[in-house]
Amino acid sequence: MRILYRTRQVWHTLNSIPAVEELARVKKTLTPPLLSLFSRMHASEQAHSLRVYNRLLAQGEKDVDLLVAALLHDVGKSRHPLRLYERVMVVLAKSLFPKYVTRWGQGDPVGWQRPFVIAEQHPAWGAEMAAQAGASPRAASFIHRHQESLQGEAVTYEDQLLRRLQLLDDES
Questions:
Q1: First vs last C-alpha separation in the chain
Q2: Span 83-97, pLDDT tens digits
Q3: Could you tell me the sign of the dihedral formed by the alpha carbons of 16, 17, 23, 25, in that order?
Q4: Which of 35, 52, 87, 108 is 20 to 30 A from 20, alpha carbon to alpha carbon?
Q5: Coil, strand or helix: which one is 172?
Q6: What crossing angle do the helices spanning 157-171 and 43-58 adopt, rounded to 10°?
Q7: pTM score, two decimals?
Q8: 48: exposed, middle or buried (C-beta count within 10 Å: 0-12, 13-18, 19+)?
């Protein structure tokens, strides 16, 4: 089943372009500076973020900070955009060498480590970018923590929201 999921991800990366109506809906959630950040993202990442956002809306979600985070959780990747082969390389390495990927993800995004650094550091970069553009500290925290491993039951309300974001991010 995981291979089908990954195949679908590659297909979405190659073919996803957000619809005009969806982009209009984003304007209701994001302020102009945050919308500017969203527009810096690759079209496939915008489409992915919109899938997460739309699924939250379909579940009745009204928490603005979570909705902002859904739209901008991958904005840090716009600092150093990944090429398709680099995305594939990261996915394969995460499944084969998960502990090494974390180690390889430290430092500057240069050389062969570049895709791993982007994969590991984009949450922190995105949170910083969103905060500078006026996102609330809570929305920035969701962005920063969207790849954090939550162990056990999510106790706080914020952790429960974060877990929902993470689940939808993994599924979309």
A1: 14
A2: 888 988 998 898 889
A3: negative
A4: 87
A5: coil
A6: 130
A7: 0.89
A8: buried
